[in-house]
Amino acid sequence: MRFRAKILALSVVTAIMAYSWRDTFVAESLRGAKVLVTGASTGIGEQMAYHYASFGAQIIITARRENVLKKVAEKCLELGAQKALYVPGDMSNTTDPEKVVKFAVEALGGLDYLVLNHIGPSPFAMWDGDVEHVRWLMQVNFLSYLQMTSSALPHLEKTGGSIVVVSSMLGKMCTPFVGPYTATKFSLSGFFGTLQHELAMQRKNVTVTICVLGLIDTQSAMDKIKGYTSMKAYPATDAALHIIKAGATRQRESFYPLYTYFGSLFRDWFPFLRDLFIQNSYNYEP
Ligand SMILES: NC(=O)c1ccc[n+]([C@@H]2O[C@H](COP(=O)([O-])OP(=O)(O)OC[C@H]3O[C@@H](n4cnc5c(N)ncnc54)[C@H](OP(=O)(O)O)[C@@H]3O)[C@@H](O)[C@H]2O)c1
What we know:
This protein is of the alpha/beta class. It is 52% helix and 14% strand. The chain has helices at residues 2-20, 43-54, 66-79, 96-108, 131-159, 179-201, 219-225, 236-248, 259-266, 271-280, and strands at 34-38, 58-63, 83-88, 113-116, 162-168, 207-213, 253-256. Helix 5 (131-159) links the parallel strand 4 (113-116) and strand 5 (162-168). The protein is globular, with a radius of gyration of 20 Å. It starts with a helix and ends in a 6-residue tail after the last helix. NADP nicotinamide-adenine-dinucleotide phosphate (NAP) is lined by residues 39-45, 63-65, 68, 89-92, 117-120, 140, 166, 168, 213, 215-216, 218, 220-221.
């Protein structure tokens, strides 16, 4: 009898989870959508640009390298984007975030999605005490996100738009070799988690989606972890599509791949075993 009750409870929980995780995304909702994607010259940002393009969105892409952006924008037009423009910007420069948003709003006549994805390069190594690098990375990976959000919010309020923040499992759980990067991702979780509450309490029709990603097979990530770990990396194009769907369906927090959800859920249950597992999953000789 007890066994049956347990099976029943498990089935109910599974059914609720399957219902809440069902795919409610409607591709048509992105046709003509006005989208700004940052860090779109390579990696996940580039893949997001291609997906938005194939859904018929109007896109502005930004990063530092103009020649690369030009090629990505051309491919977006081939894939079906209603509009695809690019604007070079360096997010370590404190005036560029506002300039980029201004360009996007003027070129598109408004904004539906602000997709914050860019990151500055940071070494995969034990922290060497370099505080200046952390300060610089905070500007690129964190403060520029806030500057763009601040500039875009009035426009997003007009359209009932969305802010999509690309974060990481490393914004939820501490691991070695990534101190400065992790600091910026934890900051994003804290700030944008607060903003979610405040927008809801002010009854503003703007949503914030925080995407928690695991290891993704972009060139920069693969180069960094080479020799340190043999962890499986997931495809950038799938991660990009997951982020777009999460934003379009106005989810609060979204996880890709699924292990990041369970990792976040069970993070603090067995801290000793967790830390042992993390430290032993890297190749390192002091
Ligand atoms: N790949 C992973 O394993 C992984 C895991 C978890 C989370 N994520 C998150 O996913 C997002 C994308 O990661 P990714 O692996 O696709 O990164 P990536 O391939 O290294 O791309 C980074 C992008 O940011 C741009 N960028 C770099 N410095 C910049 C600056 N100072 N100003 C403006 N743009 C700058 C780069 O273009 P330019 O060089 O042309 O400027 C590039 O377009 C990040 O938020 C990352 O934290 C990635």
